[in-house]
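Researcher: Structure prediction, please.
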Amino acid sequence: MSKRVFINLPVANLSKSIAFFEALGFSRHPQFTDDAGACIVVSDTISVMLLTHARFRDFTPKAICDTSKAVEVLLSLSCESREEVDSLVAKAIAAGGSTYDKPEDFGFMYTHSFVDLDGHGWGLLHMSAMSAQ
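Model: Predicted structure follows.
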């Protein structure tokens, strides 16, 4: 049985955050979506739980990070190709996100990133098959 990953993120405006991730091509799981949170399906094994600040506080006694001043986590997502990396960054920017870097090509790995509406950083990477040595 495959393990699943659920990434829980606090969001300031749930409907805008849902629209942002849907603009990237991800889908919403209606069974796990209500007025306090939404399950965004990234893949068969990865889901992002977008939670209002009030709902997020139900899971932790700690303060929610101000992402304009500090980094809470760096999220990395593998992509099938360089084109998918570039496409997701372009979609993120078109949907109101931003980027703080340029694409980097390391030969065996291509990377770029975007920042979502709530300041969460998403690193995208495509790794080519490593040749046998």
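Model: The mean pLDDT is 93.
Researcher: Thanks, that helps.
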